[in-house]
Design goal:
The chain is an alpha+beta fold and 692 residues long. It contains 17 helices and 37 strands. InterPro entries: ACX-like_C, ATPase_NBD, Hydant_A_N, Hydantoinase_A, Oxoprolinase-like.
């Protein structure tokens, strides 16, 4: 027997999924996260799940990990003090930035401009210059470089970033400065723009390089510490880290290029959602992952998540390939409050987190949260995480009552219903960002909900979006860990080459893409994968000549060769018209080309439930249960999910409980159990329900 472990660390819980690669059997673990040292919670969860499965740690061959270490370093402003070396005359590249201010009308009046990750006093200029075609304009002054590096050393920088103008076209000067820095600043982490992001636009390239240096120390220490802890605990396994684009890389590569990990956690959820949706027979879906701190949403077409060229975390937007995930501060731990000025109920973005957590956790939290509201409404059972956490209903009610008192609502239930509705609207707003605002009708998609809190809000989000069915996967609370365990290794290679279509031939473009593919394959081959098992995909960023932005267009491997430019022209025009409803007569222009190499997808056996017919009574609990729905108490049935069988139909109102999550089925809706284990919730008129 061989086993692989998926590990996902969230703001509140650490989720572990152990998979038997021969049988497809899974074992789940969920434990509280340990923000002070994430590896503590990871190891505790691994030992817990292996003990429950009766599997020794030595039998685990792979540990696949989605991490938020880089994300948290950015959000909490706890990265390294970064020194920046740039071309003379460009010292203020991060301060000048781009003339974009977020927010609505007059937002610039109150918007606090974030401080650059490399301070101006820690930025130095050196004499050198490359032209856009890669030719040397000014030779590198090595004496100047040494003097400037010694200045940074005296100022106590903890990491170094190097970003020269046009280094994407010729990286010789950056490489030489890296060699000199290794002599002058031994042991200091170094990030070079021509390695991190070899693309045009000096601001985005510099910002991404500095961000890489900012988090590199923390990520490297965490990865090395985790590898050491895994080894000392008896786990002789390979550690791989999930990238923001949903692919895996070795721990060493992740430590060297941590800017590619900023959306590592959310990417795992989307990958897991695609796997589950495929088993249930759906290919177009909206995903929403609601945890304890935030909710991440994404759109998937044809089982392929939409991938963007930018990654945004807090105020920081870097140029790094990632699944197009949007995040909103709406989770189970989001705190409800009533600002004195407006007297209007608000929910989030502040969160109670893992410590002290919601009032219902009984760990010292007193502020009302979404979880407390769910408890008051009767949507949550009294135990979570398989009994590890017992909920305190009275504490939850007392916390929510403060909202009722502040707003004048007649009861704690009314206040809790308001909290529930508002957090659903917040999530709905995020879903619109990836659907209607991108030109997609949510009614054309299924909605898949996961995370510990997602299934409680899924049915209500289905009503808001019109996306049916609502899919609740097996083990929704640990789906991100499942995504980590069911994805493949991936790496990419990028080159900027600004050419109008009249200036490049089909053969030249095809040859360049094949060169990039060879580069992208290198790290995967070094990690032990066989070349025949690798899959190559290609994409180019195109624009009309004169435009200031590009649109990524995929290139099929079979399209390389004669006619590839014509194929790209047609694909770009179709996407431009979809996005903007018009076309231009300007000549097309290629800006950036990239090739991506992917390893084989794990061959895991799919789970098939025993057929049980439509009657779900065998899974029903005997105790009476009441929910607050539509302004009044209603009788509901509680079901144990692990007792449900394929074909069972659960009419609402109902609560379906399991180890790591709870699903709410609203009145006038029903959940059907798919043979793969997923629950498919639809309006009652579209569902065949068992007779009473």
């Amino acid at each position: 027997m061989t086993y692989r472990l998926g590990v996902d660390v969230g703001g509140t819980f650490t989720d572990i999924l152990l998979i038997n690669e021969d049988t497809g059997e899974t074992y789940r673990g969920k434990t509280s996260s340990t923000p002070q040292d994430q590896s503590v919670g990871v190891l505790r969860g691994i030992e817990q799940v292996c003990r429950a499965a009766g599997v020794s740690l030595a039998e685990v061959e792979e540990v696949l990990h989605g991490t938020t270490v880089a994300t948290n370093a950015i959000l909490e402003k706890k990265g390294a003090r970064v020194g920046l070396v740039t071309t003379r005359g460009f010292r203020q590249v991060l301060q000048i930035a781009r003339s974009f201010v977020p927010g609505g009308l007059a937002g610039w009046i109150i918007w606090p401009k974030p401080e650059p990750l490399a301070a101006l006093e820690d930025t130095v200029e050196v004499t050198e210059r490359m032209a856009a075609d890669g030719s040397v304009v000014t030779e590198l002054d090595e004496d100047d470089v040494r003097a400037q590096l010694r200045t940074l050393k005296d100022q106590g920088v903890e990491a170094l970033s190097i970003s020269f103008i046009n280094a994407y076209a010729n990286d010789a000067h950056e490489r030489r400065v890296e060699e000199i820095a290794a002599e002058e600043l031994p042991g200091l982490p170094i990030s070079r723009s021509s390695a991190v992001l070899p693309e045009l636009r000096e601001y985005e390239r510099t910002l991404t390089t500095v961000a890489n240096a900012y988090v590199q120390g923390q990520v490297s220490r965490y990865v090395n510490n985790l590898q050491s802890q895994l080894g000392s605990s008896g786990l002789d396994s390979t550690l791989s880290i999930l990238r923001s684009d949903g692919g895996l890389v070795s721990a060493q590569v992740a430590a060297e290029n941590p800017v590619s990990l900023l959306l590592s956690g959310p990417a795992g959820g989307v990958t897991g959602a695609v796997w589950v949706a495929e088993q249930a027979g759906f290919s177009d879906l909206l995903t929403f992952d609601m945890g304890g701190t935030s909710t991440d949403v994404a759109l998937v077409q044809g089982l392929s998540p939409r991938v963007g060229r930018e990654t945004t975390v807090g105020d920081l937007t870097v140029r790094a390939t990632s699944v197009d995930v949007r995040t909103v501060g709406a989770g189970g731990g989001s705190i409800a409050h009533v600002p004195p000025l407006t007297q209007a109920l608000r929910v989030g973005p502040q969160s109670a987190g893992a410590v002290p957590g919601p009032a219902a956790y009984g760990a010292g939290g007193a502020e009302p949260t979404v979880t407390d509201a769910d408890v008051v409404l009767g949507y949550l059972p009294t135990q979570l995480a398989g009994g590890e956490i017992t909920l305190d209903e009275e504490a939850a009610r007392a916390a929510v009552q403060t909202i009722a008192d502040a707003t004048g609502l007649p009861s704690a239930e009314a206040a809790a219903a308001g909290i529930y509705d508002i957090v659903n609207e917040n999530i709905f707003g995020a879903l619109k960002l990836v659907s209607t605002q991108q030109g997609f009708d949510p009614r054309d998609f299924a909605l898949i909900a996961f995370g510990g809190a997602g299934p409680l809000h899924a049915n209500a989000l289905g009503v808001l979006t019109g996306a049916w069915p609502v899919i609740i996967p097996p083990s929704p609370g640990v789906l991100c860990a499942y995504g980590d365990a069911t994805t493949s290794h991936r790496d990419e290679s990028v080159r900027t080459l600004i050419r109008r279509f009249s200036e490049i031939t089909d053969a030249e473009l095809s040859g360049m893409l094949e060169e990039l593919a060879s580069s992208a394959k290198r790290s995967l081959l070094e990690s032990g994968l066989a070349e025949e098992d690798l899959t190559l995909t290609y994409a180019v960023d195109l624009r009309y000549h004169g435009q200031g932005f590009e649109i990524p267009v995929a290139v099929e491997a079979g399209s390389l060769g004669e006619g590839v430019l014509g194929t790209l022209r047609s694909a770009f025009n179709a996407e431009h018209e979809r996005l903007f409803s018009f076309l231009l007569d300007n000549e097309h222009e290629l800006v950036t080309a990239r090739a991506t190499a992917s390893g084989p997808r794990p061959n895991l056996a799919a789970t098939t439930l025993e057929e049980g017919g439509p009657d779900p009574s065998g899974a029903a609990r005997e105790e009476a249960h009441r929910l607050w729905v539509g302004g009044s108490q209603v009788e509901a049935v509680v079901y144990d999910r692990d007792k449900l069988k394929a074909g069972n139909v659960i009419p609402g109102p109902a609560v379906i409980a399991e180890m790591d999550s709870t699903t709410l089925v609203l009145p006038d809706h029903a959940a059907t159990v798919h043979p793969s284990g997923s629950l498919l919730i639809r309006p009652l008129e579209h569902t065949d329900t068992p007779e009473a």
